[in-house]
Design a protein that fits this description.
binds adenosine-5'-triphosphate, P-loop_NTPase, disordered N terminus, globular, about 250 residues, Rossmann fold, binds magnesium ion, alpha/beta, nine-stranded mixed beta sheet, CpsD/CapB family tyrosine-protein kinase, 9 strands
Length: about 250
């Protein structure tokens, strides 16, 4: 089912013209070292992310949505791992944005080994005039990345500013805008995610099997309303049929 839906979704989504930013080629070996597998079509560890990509695209198409944050109840559930690999898998078939909005613990710049290329989304949120985005190229695919420059303690105050609305308006500005994956903070630590939620079209929830308490999950889902949860990723699963420990996805 997903493969058919996926190709239909792709056909309906025209390519977005490249514009702005600094284009750089990512180091494949560094990506694999940092747990970013899904740029590689032939890597079996990428397969669950291709499945997730197809299901998400179908889901977004049905809702005419494009901006999705990857979050979890508590820290360290694997949000960045999922956001990076999902964005990588999406960018193999469709122009994609990856935006790091976990201002306290940003990792996108480090895991993609972007160095100091381009200024950060945090600089934009603090008043810098342009987004200064970096477009990363691996093979033939195109991934636009907005990394963070410096971990920020006052992240909630930064995210609560008018600049956040401007950021999301810019991400949605093109009539044929790419799908946008946000590497987001956890729900139950600070209020950063609550501040971001109204700007989102949907949320992808990362759940750690056997580790995410049900009460935390319930509380998270309650707090998120009315922002829709467009799917759930079961990470570090103990199911024997998931050999790489992630990728179980079920739309809600
Ligand atoms: N299924 C997995 N298989 C292998 N490594 C994983 C998996 N899930 C997460 N990791 C690794 O676990 C570590 C923590 O994951 P990650 O940084 O994605 O969590 P996070 O939820 O983004 O944390 P934070 O709340 O700090 O932002 C990383 O080194 C990541 O590569
Ligand atoms: Mg993270």
């Amino acid at each position: 089912m997903t493969a058919i839906l996926s190709s239909r979704a792709q056909m309906r989504r025209p390519a977005v013209p490249e514009e702005g930013g600094t284009t750089m080629t990512l180091d494949r070996a560094a990506l694999l070292r940092n747990g970013v597998f899904a740029f590689e079509r032939a890597d079996p560890r990428a397969a669950p992310f291709a499945m997730l990509r197809s299901q998400l695209l179908h889901r977004l198409d049905a809702r005419k949505a494009r901006v999705v944050a990857v979050t979890s109840a508590r820290p360290r559930a694997g949000k960045s791992f999922v956001a990076l690999n999902l964005a990588a898998a999406l960018s193999r078939i469709y122009p994609t944005w990856l935006v790091d909005l976990d201002l306290r613990r940003p990792v996108v710049r480090e895991r993609l080994e972007l160095g100091d290329v381009a200024s950060g989304v945090d600089a934009f949120l603090l008043g810098a005039p342009g987004l200064g985005e970096v477009r990363c190229v691996v093979g033939e695919q195109h991934l636009g990345v907005l990394p963070v420059d410096t971990p920020r303690e006052g992240s909630a105050e930064i995210l609560a500013s008018d600049r956040t609305a401007q950021l999301f308006a810019s991400l949605r500005a093109h009539p044929q805008s790419p799908v946008c994956i946000i590497d987001a903070p956890p729900m139950l630590e600070g209020d950063d995610m609550m501040i971001l939620a109204p700007h989102l079209d949907g949320v992808l929830m990362v759940v750690e099997e056997g580790r995410t308490p049900q009460a935390d999950l319930r509380e998270t889902l309650r707090m998120l309303r009315p922002t829709p949860v467009v799917g759930t990723v079961l990470n570090r699963t103990i199911l024997p049929q998931q050999p790489f420990g992630y990728g179980e996805y079920y739309p809600r």
